[in-house]
# Entry
Amino acid sequence: MVNRNLTAPEGPPSDVERIKEESKYLRGTLSDVMLDRISAGIPDDDNRLMKHHGSYLQDDRDLRNERQKQKLEPAYQFMLRVRMPGGVAKPDQWLVMDELADKYGNGTLKMTTRQTFQMHGILKWNMKKTIQEIHSSLLDTIAACGDVNRNVMSVSNPFQSEFHTEVYEWSKKLSDYLLPRTRAYHEIWLDEEQVAGTPDADGIEPMYGPLYLPRKFKIGIALPPSNDVDVFSQDLGLIAIVEDNVLKGFNIAIGGGMGMSHGDTATYPQLAKVIGFCTPDQILEVAEKIITIQRDYGNRSVRKNARFKYTVDRLGLENVKAELEDRLGYSLQDAKPYHFDSNGDRYGWVQGVKGKWHFTLFAEGGRIKDYDELKLKTGLREIAKVHKGDFRLTANQNLIIGNVSSLQKKKINALLEQYGLTDGKHFSALRRSSMVCVALPTCGLAMAEAERYLPSLIDKIEEIVDENGLRDEEITIRMTGCPNGCARHALGEIGFIGKSVGKYNMYLGAAFDGSRLSKMYRENIGEEEILKELRVLLASYAKERLAGEHFGDYVIRAGVVKATTDGTNFHE
# Structure
């Protein structure tokens, strides 16, 4: 192997590195503290480890001040996230998750921007029972959070190509291949007996090692022309290449990521960059070797600079590529041509390959619950009871009722109509193109509202949209309660990042196909200013746009913001 004098950053390891090192491969004292009923919470060290098991300890921030006044501990609860590569669930698995949300959670399911389920509001003494019941449905929560590879994303809608299933199978193989090998999860939650003795590190975690990764790692697979997984937002993005009616392999893009910190120009969103092409039989090894580069050279001292994008920037893209090829023992092929049309979803009924039907349902904010006039949770439960195909969670927080036979379509459609679960066409295209993170009250990082606020903000923006004849124009709009980027705000043509209660930084100019970042337009503004700015911008867009021109492209052409192709000038 050629020595390029690559080194990891100097500095003392962060406290999280100590926690992992002392954890006995992610065990910590979780077995004991989860049985302790004196507190509904757990110590911080164990909470850091808990992430690798698919969960975070949270508290209801709406109740925080009142509980402090009453000298009570915070209203602790756990968020639990499922590992579900490609977002595919069978109807019986949907029914299990639906039941558990009522039985142990807050009565709702959240479809995440990484194509999986989250449940909120689970009390400590119900965690083990919840995980065991999820496991009984052949799902799990292993590595859904933590300093490991997270849920592997895959193109959602099977109407697009007969190669969808093949690409989805690779997302499953990657997810399984890149799992941690420690048996901690099975011992703590599934009552597997711990084997006596302690094998060496290579025997337990041959890829991750005893310290796992410096930070989380995300993989997504796109199948052109759809970029619904926002492939350039991933640490490792894979672009499926089909030629002569054969899946030839994948273009490899590295170093994407959406997170940043307010006021810190050393942190920034960044697009992954394409470095080459590999064949399908090489993809598992390629992913593994890329992860080991991040393992060996990522920043273990400063966690906010620990994502792979910063490792790539610090070492240099060409150096990382050369290191990868050394570890592989062969060179990557040149990247192959591809083209993306959009990063959104296509709603309604579509007939796909093999005559199967697929219905894409708009679910605002990805929240599955019963509303006053929309019995979403109940309706989907009744559909799951008769559905013979599958459910596919999209990367845009929507839902595909997939693989419906022509015979079953009539029955499914009747249930959709009975419960008012339309395809969303009576909503504006702007609303159907929205995405939002959870934020308050459960996320401990949120600085402002997001999921609870964006729908009402869109109500007011829709008035402007309608005034300008833009109701049917798809404009991606995304909001996060903090700058960590869970709703991929930097890839929204209109983006909002929470700064404080009622205040947001406003970003414009991302590409409709997810290939260009947005850029700061206004800082720390509230609703009145947001609407004032959009009233001018949307009116100008309606009058001055070129044929087929998307809003993000227009604001750049008009000089409202400058084009941003990477993270280096995102803050300017």
Remarks:
- The two ends are 40 Å apart (CA to CA).
- DSSP finds 18 helices and 20 strands in the chain.
- Residues 68 and 74 are 7 Å apart (CA to CA).
- The mean pLDDT is 94.
